[in-house]
Amino acid sequence: MLDLDLGSTQMAKKILVLVIAFCLSLHLSAAKADFRQAIKAYQKQDYSNAFRLFKQQAEIGEVRSSLI
What we know:
mainly alpha; rod-shaped; about 70 residues; 3 helices
């Protein structure tokens, strides 16, 4: 069963891990959306906007953006 003793350090660690995982998932989903926007801009031949978006993605570590 779940131990819900909020004063324990184990519970604090579990909560911290969940919060970090949640924040990372938000960051990754936002990065995926921006990558899609960059692809769409490139397909519309809006190269300056596509370059800007790809560059932003590459700077935050999106490997696919560095390869384009």
